Structure formats: C-alpha cells, structure tokens
C-alpha cells in the first residue's frame, strides 16, 4: 500500500486526500491550521477572464485553443470533462446533492463584495444567473440586516429599466438574535428546530409581500448541517425555488463542504495530524517542535496561497512563501509539477493548489481548474495512469 | 505570550469554535481573544459578557493560520472576569479547579441535590461514580523491553481504577514494567487554566512536575498518558505558558504507544478472536476529544482497525461539551448537552461501545448518547482478556505501583 502524506487541508489538500484514498492509498493529512474552506463559497472557476481582462463566457472553448494550454501536460477537453465529473462525484459521495451534468458556460453569482462575477460551477444552494444583465425576476430576503452585501448590485440594478425585476422582503428578527451574529451564527441558529420553525413562519408571512414570481434568495444562512432539508421546507412553504448568495467569511458554504468532507475522509481511515512540516525528504516529512517524522512514499504539498504562509509555485519552478515573499529557503530541481526541496534539502513532492504553474487565479479566474488539474496530475503520478484511468471510468458510468 | 497581535481577522477560528455553533449568545473566539486583547493593549480593561462560556477546548487555536494564542488570551480575560462573580460560584470553581482534592475522596462527588443547587453545580450532567479495579491482570510478560511511566490523572485516580489496571495489564503483557506517577494526588493545572485561574494553574503544574520527576525511576523511557487534556497541558502549555522546563522523558498517549509498541502476537490474538466471533460483535464508535486533536484525529480509528474491529465509526463531534468541569456548571449544562447530542444521529445500533481518549468526556458521552463509553485501554483489555481466556493463557495479577 502506498503511504502518502498531504501537507495542508484546504480544498486541494482534501481533494487530493479524497482521490488518493479512493484509489487505495493510505493517506495522512498534516496541517498546522485549518484550511481555507471557511473563506470560500464553494464555487469552482474554470476560466473567467482572458489575458487582457475581457470576460470569458465559454471556458470550454477557451481551453480548446491550443495556445491557451500553458502546462507541460496540457489537457484535452475530454480530460477536463472526466476530471470535473470526478470532482462532482466526490461531492456527491460526501453528501451534496449534485447534478452530474457539467455546465456548458460560465454563470454569474453575486460575490460577497456585492458585485456580480462569473464562475463555472457552484454548489446547488448557490443562486446563479445566466448573464450579467439578467432579466430573471428575483426576490431577495433581508434577514436581520444581512442584506447589506448585495446591496450594491441591487442598487445598480434598480437604476435601470429592469428595476421591477428585483424586490426585497424583510423577515422580522427572532428573539434569539444578537447584534454580533455573523452568517455562521445565523446558520447555527437555523440548524436548531426553533430556528428552522422561525424561518418557515417568517417566510410564509413575507410571501404576502412578494409580487414577483421568481426565486426567493436568502443570504447564506440556511443552516450548516441541515441545509438541504431546510431549503426544501422553505421552498414548499412559499411555493418557489429557494437559493442563497454568499456572504463575507466565515463562509457558510465552504464550512458545509469542509465538515462533510472531514467526516467522510475520517470514516475512510484518513489520518489527520496536527503539526508544522519543516522539512520534506524522499522518505516523508519532519515536523517542527521536535514532534518527529512521518514516513511516506510520496508527499503532496497543498499549503495554498490565501492566508498565512501558503506556497505558490511560479513557472520557473521557484516556490515562494506567499505571506512573506521569501523564496530562497526552497531549493531543488523543479519541473512542471514537480520535485521540490524544502529547507535546502533535495527531495520529492508534488505541489498542488490554485497557485501552481504560474497561474494567477485572482486575475484569470481559474483557481478551481488549477486545483483540479494539479491534484489530478499528482494523483496520476503517484497511483499510475492505468489504475487512475480504470477508476475514472467507473466514476463516469456508475450510478450516482 | 507570542503572537497576541498577529490576527489577520480571517474568522477561521470562529468557524472552528463548537460553542459558537450551539450558544447563540457566545461572541466567539475572534471577539473574545485577539479583539479583546487589542482593546486591552490600548488600555481598555473591560471584560466581555459570556467570556466564561468558552470551554477552553482550544480548537480555535488549532485552526488559526498565524498561531494567535486565542484560547489563552480568553483565559486571561476569564481571570479578570472572576472578580465580578458571586461568592458561591467562586467557591464552587475553587473546588472544581482542584480535581486532585476530589480524586483523594471520590465519594465527595456525589453531593446531595440541594447542595448542588446552592453551589450551582449541574444537576443534569452525570457525575462520575468510582469504578474500582476489577480487571484481573493478565499474563506476565514474555520478555521485558524496559520500563515506562504511566501518568495517573485525577479522573482515573479517583474514579477509574479499572482503566488504570487495564492499562498496566496491557503494558505488562507487551513487555514493559510499569511505574505509576505521581504517587500522590496532584493536578497538572488544566482545570484551573480552563477557569481562568492562571496563577493557581501554574502552582499546580509546578508541584505536579516536581512530583513526577521525584517519583519516576531513572530507567523509565516514556511517560504514557490516558487523558488527552493532561497530556496537552503537560506537553505544551507547561513550557509555553508557565515557562517550565520540559519533562526529561517523552510523553505519549496510550493509544499511540499501543500502535507503535504492542507486539505482533498481541494484535494477532485480538484479530483472530474478533474473527471467531464476528457475528454479533459490537460496533465501535470513536471520539478524539478536543484536546486530543492537538495531536490529530484518526488515531483511535486506526487503533480499533488494528485490533480487528470491522465496523468503526468516528463520531462527528469536535468537542463533546464536557471539557473538564464545564458540563458540571449549571450555567453551561444546556450548551454542554447540546454539544454532545450533535452525535446522536450516528448512534443507530444498540450494541456498541465508544472509545474516548479522556475519562471525563467518556462519562458525559455515555450519559448523552446512551452507549458505554470508556478509554480505549479499557476496551483493548476486555478484548485481550477474552482472547487469552480462549487460548487458555493463565491470568495472574502482577500490578506494581
Ligand atoms: S477555546 Fe474552544 S470554546 Fe473557547 S473560544 Fe476557542 S474554540 Fe471556542
Ligand atoms: S483564526 Fe487567527 S488570524 Fe484568523 S481571525 Fe482568528 S485569531 Fe485572527
């Protein structure tokens, strides 16, 4: 059995653990802190913007262009299709209700900043629009003044002719409400029976004031553990589809995914170790504070690039600490996806995440694709193409 | 304390806090820790409401990407908040933060209800009942590999002699001579620190450290622990927050020692026994306590699998709510019970046992979930005892202190 140590537990670390354990590897995740899932709405970008900043509406078409294949191991569209499907199957397995049909085009979401932005795939609870100038009617729900985030978008929209297509209804605050409640505190409240009853009662009351026939869109507060059931109950009560838009962190969408993923990985025997990896060698990793070594046949470095000392790999193969800008303490031979040395020791490991191969996900909107591509490539290298291909074919055909 | 002003305001700690999810009034780790600290540094000495509702599980700290000592800042705030508390609560906390007194006279824990109410001790959280040593100690070792120390925490000393003798029996069977330390009833300081009695915790820690060093024979190579909270306090907080020198020998939780040191014949014996009686074997649930997660999660699962248990289910629970003496306080019982109940949906089978790396948490979960919950040393011993009985290996007592 192959022992793999994965350093980091953000989206790419958990995805690597998911796929590697499904393929039969013994996986240990080592992390010094929680990953970035609590900062993430759960959406995956494929490619949102061209080099010059213009919008990409059809990411499939964009990636079909040979000059856009920037990696050493460029993928065909069929590869993208297989691996995106594998991702959605993994989300099904951890308990999300996911439609396996891949999106044809980018859709639009209201970002936590209140601006519209494109994305490729997002979890089923997320409200999406088919264009940036939508003519779909929508009723926004204001829950205890949490409406302030999409208010910019709402204002921009009410200025033009489509104004009549948007309306807002307010729910009265529950007695338990406190000034300091974040979206997560709301979600925790709605996970409890009293909270669920409150939101149903209030939604039915608010229905009297709804003039538009469209979807009812809440801020992202509809529970953490009970989301799907709760959304269904509200939809039944108001007789229209119910969605959410994402809020500022703590991001309830990412937390829902994190908790289901952790639970699933633990029940498959994936070990979680807490610790700082200070050295990667060809026989495993060494932890700081004399916490010892963990032996492994392979090491996957998934320390991300969002907060606190993530690692990013640039096209020259240099690994940079994104928090400090430090780069000299890593050395070693690097090719596309890659052997890296940490702590001035030559060693082997695969770097995965949204910031590999010179990608600039914040500018290009391709972070999700980078996660999927880098993890898939590492998994193929570790488990062998044959094993991976036969596993992938069962993922495509098997029942949902 | 290092890193007190490093907060990036990312809110990841908030997403990890179990109390924040169950108590709608709780302001959360970011507000109570780094944000309070910034105000304090600017000269504002006001303490916040609900600071006492933090369980000191430290999950917020494990989650923080930049190492802010969030829970320990909250403990300092609790220290200041104590002055505003009524005398009855101060008296109660004085007792609860001295578990070593209760361990000397465990029957004290069964206070009459009216006394409990007066002292604001929870009347719904089950208090532990002493379990005396009933384990018959199994065979003497075939080979002696060395001597280990077995750390006797207050809970096991007072209430669970059974787990202590089971642990000794297993270690002996694996070829280790066992010395129990400390010889007298002392506390590592965890309970006092959790209640914000920082100076008292430090004094308790110093006394404990001196006693361990005095009582440990020279040839001991490792100190084995049965309680994740004490383990974390001694291994990490003593050096980091009390400035104590580390103990001269490494510390290791019992279940990790088992996986790395128990010989092959032991696991083979357990596995063949498990297979023989596959029909009707109990389902095993595991819970790594909040303080056990300092080292990681999944170790108990691996242990049960190693012992041949075919169906192992990790409880979907970050902190059960017992958290030392938290559940024993009236003002916390609702939150504590809500926290533990989160795992109720997973208990879908009548025959089962729960493996927990802390005795106090086990008592709490046993009550809330209605399945027998004990330390894994106890469960392993039960299996080993069965397996050896089947093979006709003689049981004879060989405990030494
Ligand atoms: S120590 Fe535990 S209960 Fe206290 S704030 Fe941190 S996570 Fe919450
Ligand atoms: S996790 Fe750490 S850095 Fe982030 S808000 Fe909490 S204390 Fe601040």
Any key phrases for this structure?
heterodimer; A: 400 residues; FAD/NAD(P)-binding domain; 2 domains; 11 helices; 18 strands; B: 401 residues; alpha/beta; Fumarate Reductase Iron-sulfur Protein, Chain B, domain 2; 3 domains; four-stranded parallel β-sheet; 9 strands; globular; disordered C terminus
> Largest interface, and how many residues on either side?
A-B, 36 and 34 residues
Overall geometry of chain B: globular
The rounded distance between the terminal residues' Cα atoms of chain A is 28 Å
The tally of domains of chain A stands at: 2
| Mean pLDDT reading of chain A | 83
Q: CATH top level of the largest domain in chain A?
A: Alpha Beta
Strand content of chain B: 5-15%
Q: Give the SSE string of chain A.
A: EHEHHEEEHEHHEHEHEEEEEEEEEEHHH
Widest beta sheet: strand line-up of chain B = 2-1-3-4
Tally of DSSP β-strands of chain A? 18
> What's the alpha carbon Rg of chain A, rounded to whole Å?
22 Å
> Count the strands of chain B?
9
The helix/strand series of chain B, from N terminus to C terminus, equals HHHHHHHHEHHEHHEHEHHEEHEHEHEH
CATH fold assignment of the largest domain in chain A: FAD/NAD(P)-binding domain
- CATH level-4 homologous superfamily of the largest domain in chain A: FAD/NAD(P)-binding domain
């Amino acid at each position: 059995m192959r022992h793999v140590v994965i350093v980091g537990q953000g989206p790419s670390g958990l995805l690597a653990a998911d796929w590697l354990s499904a393929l039969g590897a013994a996986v240990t995740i080592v992390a010094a802190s929680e990953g970035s899932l609590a900062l993430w709405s759960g959406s995956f970008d494929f490619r949102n913007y061209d080099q010059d900043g213009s919008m990409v509406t059809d990411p499939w078409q964009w990636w079909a262009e040979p000059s856009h294949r920037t990696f050493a191991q460029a993928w065909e569209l069929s590869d993208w299709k297989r691996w995106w499907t594998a991702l959605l199957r993994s989300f099904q397995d951890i308990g999300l209700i996911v439609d396996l049909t891949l999106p044809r085009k980018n859709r639009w979401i209201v970002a936590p900043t209140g601006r519209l932005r494109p994305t490729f795939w997002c979890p089923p609870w997320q409200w999406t629009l088919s264009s940036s100038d939508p003519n779909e009617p929508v009723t926004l729900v204001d829950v205890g003044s949490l409406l302030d985030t999409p208010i910019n978008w709402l204002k921009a929209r009410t200025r033009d002719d489509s104004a009549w297509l948007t309306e807002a209804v307010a729910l009265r605050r529950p007695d338990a409400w406190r000034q300091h409640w974040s979206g997560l505190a709301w979600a925790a409240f709605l996970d409890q029976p009293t909270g669920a009853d409150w939101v149903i009662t209030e939604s039915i009351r608010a229905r009297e004031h709804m003039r538009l026939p469209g979807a009812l869109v809440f801020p992202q507060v509809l529970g953490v553990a009970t989301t799907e059931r709760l959304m269904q109950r509200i939809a039944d009560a108001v007789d229209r589809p119910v969605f959410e838009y994402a809020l500022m962190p703590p991001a309830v969408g990412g937390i829902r995914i994190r908790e289901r993923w952790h639970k699933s990985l633990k029940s498959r025997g994936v070990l979680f170790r807490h610790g700082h990896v200070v050295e990667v060698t060809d026989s495993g990793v060494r932890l700081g504070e004399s916490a010892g070594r963990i032996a492994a046949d392979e090491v996957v470095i998934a320390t991300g690039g969002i907060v606190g000392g993530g690692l990013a790999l640039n096209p020259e193969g240099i690994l940079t600490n994104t928090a400090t800008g430090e780069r000299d303490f890593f050395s070693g031979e690097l090719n596309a996806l890659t052997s890296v040395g940490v702590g001035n020791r030559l060693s082997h490991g695969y770097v995965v995440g949204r910031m590999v191969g010179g990608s600039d996900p914040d500018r290009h909107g391709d972070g999700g694709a980078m996660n999927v591509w880098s993890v898939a490539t590492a998994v193929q290298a570790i488990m062998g193409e044959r094993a991976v291909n036969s596993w992938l074919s069962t993922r495509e055909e098997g029942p949902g | 304390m290092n890193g007190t002003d490093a907060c990036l305001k990312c809110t990841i700690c908030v997403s990890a806090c179990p109390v924040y999810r169950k108590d709608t009034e709780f302001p959360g780790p970011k507000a109570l820790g780094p944000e309070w600290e910034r105000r304090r540094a600017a000269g504002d000495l006001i303490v916040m409401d609900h600071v006492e509702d933090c369980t000191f599980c430290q999950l917020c700290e494990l989650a923080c990407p930049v190492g802010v000592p969030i829970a320990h800042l909250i403990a300092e705030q609790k220290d200041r908040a104590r002055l505003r508390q009524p005398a009855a609560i101060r008296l109660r906390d004085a007792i609860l933060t001295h578990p070593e007194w209760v361990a000397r006279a465990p029957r004290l824990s069964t206070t009459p209800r009216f006394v409990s109410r007066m002292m604001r001790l929870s009347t719904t959280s089950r208090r532990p009942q002493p379990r005396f040593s009933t384990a018959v100690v199994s065979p003497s070792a075939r080979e002696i590999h060395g001597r280990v120390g077995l750390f006797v925490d207050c809970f096991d000393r007072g209430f669970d002699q059974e787990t202590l003798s089971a642990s000794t029996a297993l270690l002996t069977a694996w070829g280790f001579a066992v010395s129990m330390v400390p010889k007298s009833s002392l506390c590592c300081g965890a309970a006092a620190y959790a209640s914000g009695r920082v100076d008292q915790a430090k004094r308790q820690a110093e006394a404990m450290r001196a006693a361990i060093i005095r009582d440990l024979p020279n040839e001991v190579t490792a100190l084995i622990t049965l309680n994740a909270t004490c383990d974390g306090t001694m291994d990490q907080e003593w050096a980091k927050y009390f400035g104590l020198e580390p103990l001269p020998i490494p510390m290791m939780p019992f279940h990790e020692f088992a996986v790395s040191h128990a010989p092959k014949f032991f696991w083979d014996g357990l596995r063949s026994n498990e297979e023989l009686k596959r029909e009707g074997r109990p389902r095993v649930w595991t819970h790594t306590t909040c303080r056990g997660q300092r080292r990681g999660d999944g170790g108990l699962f691996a242990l049960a699998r190693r012992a041949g248990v075919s169906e192992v289910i990790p409880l979907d629970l970050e902190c059960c709510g017992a958290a030392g003496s938290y559940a024993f306080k009236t003002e916390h019982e609702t939150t504590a019970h809500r926290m533990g109940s989160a795992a109720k949906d997973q208990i879908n089978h009548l025959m089962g046992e729960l493996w927990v790396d802390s005795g106090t948490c086990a008592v709490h979960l046993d009550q809330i979930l209605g399945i027998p919950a004990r330390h894994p040393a106890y469960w392993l011993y039960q299996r080993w005892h069965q397996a050896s009985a089947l093979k006709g290996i003689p049981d004879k007592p060989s405990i030494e202190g």
